[in-house]
Design brief:
Helices cover 46% and strands 19% of the residues. It is of the alpha/beta class and 295 residues long. α8 links the parallel β4 and β5 (167-178). α1 packs across α12 (261-276) and α7 (122-132) crosses α8 (155-165).
Length: 295
């Protein structure tokens, strides 16, 4: 397969570019060690949350930007007080709905919505709680790889409205994102910056570690316990369409950026020469941010 001509590979790379984001993420989840890495960080937060709450109380969780299977087995098994999966994409939620109905998972609820609008401030969060979430606060909130679709200037207010209006009096928030600070060639951050800077004159400024510093001095979080950590994960699959699907996901095409045809071809040729033929895995440095509330 690695001897396939560039023209054939380019055609296959173009065909997969427009696939839905949740399908690209499914490939990433299957062929990277990222989901176990997220689970390890999340479990550290859950262990602390369990120490802060009564042992006989069933906890509940809200996964924002959940996609079609966000740590599903872990969250569904751990949060027996209810798991709510919240996403803007009805196709992703339909995948989960088929599973929950097939396996009769009555504790799982699905909500479609735009988190940037529904939780943009305290008033919006209050309305969303009443209209979509049944008015009950959640012990755990997860925002895994969804803040890419939110203006970083709005992050403190968005996270603040969730902390104040959606998180239970004792609870935890767990956030995960690709590092904005990584500069090594061949990492996903470098790949993203390389092409968005070349074609749009921009790069990522969505820095979760910077958000840690902003929340630490924000009045809303004066009694919160805030921590952050970083780790490295890798992705490889011996199938060019699947490999390129993940590249498009990292470059936020088509949901965040609209590369024209010539730009897409250039990206594909670059990936063929620098990653695919050398059998080079994609490396991603991930940042995690955890916020605990205990009032």
């Amino acid at each position: 397969m690695l001897n396939t001509t560039n023209d054939m590979l380019i055609e296959r790379g173009l065909q997969v570019a427009e696939s839905r984001i949740f399908r690209k993420n499914k490939i990433w989840a299957r062929h990277a060690d990222e989901k176990p890495d997220v689970a390890a960080s999340l479990m550290r937060a859950i262990r602390i949350l369990h120490r802060l709450t009564p042992p006989d109380r069933d906890l509940s969780a809200l996964s924002i930007g959940s996609g079609d299977e966000p740590q599903f087995r872990l969250l569904e098994a751990t949060f027996r007080g209810g798991l709510c999966l919240y996403d803007i994409d009805p196709a992703a939620l339909a995948v989960v709905r088929e599973r929950t109905e097939r396996q009769m998972l009555d504790r799982v609820s699905l909500v479609q919505g735009d988190f940037n609008a529904d939780f943009r401030d305290a008033d919006a969060a209050e309305l969303t709680m009443a209209a979509k979430l049944g008015g009950r606060r959640f012990d755990l909130l997860t925002l895994h790889h969804c803040l890419y679709y939110s203006d970083k200037a709005n992050w403190p207010r968005l996270v603040g409205s969730l902390y104040e209006g959606v998180l239970a009096p004792t609870g935890a928030m767990h956030l995960a994102m690709m590092s904005a600070r990584e500069q090594r060639e061949g990492t996903t951050t470098w790949l993203y910056n390389h092409f968005t800077n070349k074609f749009f004159g921009s790069g990522t400024n969505q820095d979760l570690l910077r958000l840690h510093d902003e929340l630490a001095v924000h009045p809303t979080f004066r009694n919160a316990r805030i921590s952050s950590e970083s780790s490295e994960v890798r992705f490889w699959v011996d199938n060019f369409e699947r490999y390129m699907a993940v590249v498009w996901m990292i470059l936020l095409y088509p949901d965040g950026h609209r590369f024209n045809v010539d730009q897409r071809v250039e990206i594909i040729e670059f990936v063929i020469d620098r990653f695919w033929r050398p059998r080079r895995p994609l490396v991603q440095v991930q940042d995690y941010l955890t916020v605990f509330k205990d009032r």
